[in-house]
Amino acid sequence: MASQFNLALIPERAQKYFEANPKVLVIEDDKIMGQMVTEILDDVGFEVKTATNGKVALELLKQHRIDFIVLDILLPEMDGFEIATILRENPETHDIPIMIVSAWADGNNRQRARETLDIHHFLPKPFTEDELLFGILTLLVDSSRKGNQAQV
Amino acid sequence: MINQKQIYITIEWQEQGPMENSGHRLWREDRKVYTHLNYPDRLECHNPECEDGGFEIGDRVAALLDSNKLSEQNSLICINAMPKEGRKRCMHTIIYSISCVLPFQRERPQSLTPNKNSG
Fold first, then answer.
1. Model's pTM, two decimal places?
2. N or C: which end of chain A has fewer CB within 10 A?
3. Is the Cβ pair B77, A29 closer than 8 Å?
4. Chain segment B81-111, per-residue pLDDT in tens
């Protein structure tokens, strides 16, 4: 399934989000899924770090400036909701945009993400390459709007 | 005849593939019972465009047997999500549930009902 995603087709005002080479942390325990997401994001110029569990992810966040996070829900030891809660409670990480990517995208999980963690970007598995990239573009545009509103 | 020393492993899974305009199609739903001696390394991928694909469930079963847990739910993407050169990427995904019944628990299997609400 070749990606139809073409940076030139993104509205000009949104292209800057991709051209800025954002740094992304992918937290995913399925190694093949993690590699695939890394490859897709690397191809469009993102700098990608990966973690297969929450402990590694929190350590990476201490060491690197991360622009946004792609987060699975079902993870060993600490699940995605627990990780997101820790991130939201830490002043250093509370405003990092998060997109949840999960096969368990039922209404309860979406509601829990939205209402308790203020996470509004939820991509159900399985997804296409284009859905992943457009999901991330939306996340970056929305978080930029939020940032602008906070500055006003 | 039931072998009292065997661990029985039930794997239930749903295979899904993405569709062009969001959403996904359910390709297959299955449930099989194995033992700790004959569980599969890989479940077959049913995407007709996927060559030699599959879902590496064996590693997940082995990890579960090594842990103190008796059940797990999670998802796996087809190994051809990272295809060999020149092949198409396959985005088929399974959501699965693995439940183990240990010999001493066989009389009370209801205690192993997976908790579908977890995460």
1. 0.84
2. C
3. no
4. 998 887 889 999 999 999 999 876 655 555 5
In a 10 Å sphere around its CB, with 0-12 CB exposed, 13-18 middle and 19+ buried, how is residue B93 labelled? buried
Domain that holds residue B47: 28-103
Number of domains in chain B: 1
Nearest residue to A60 (alpha-carbon basis) of A68, A71, A49: A49
Return the pLDDT at B58.
Answer: 97
In a domain, A5, yes or no: no
ipTM: 0.83
* Total count of domains within chain A: 1
Can you name the residues that pair with B31 across neighbouring β-strands? B12
Report chain A residues touching chain B, CB-CB < 8 A.
1-2, 29-30, 32-33, 35-36, 39, 73-75, 79-81, 102-104, 108-109, 124-129, 131
Q: How many Cα atoms occupy the beta-carbon half-sphere of B39 within 13 Å?
A: 25
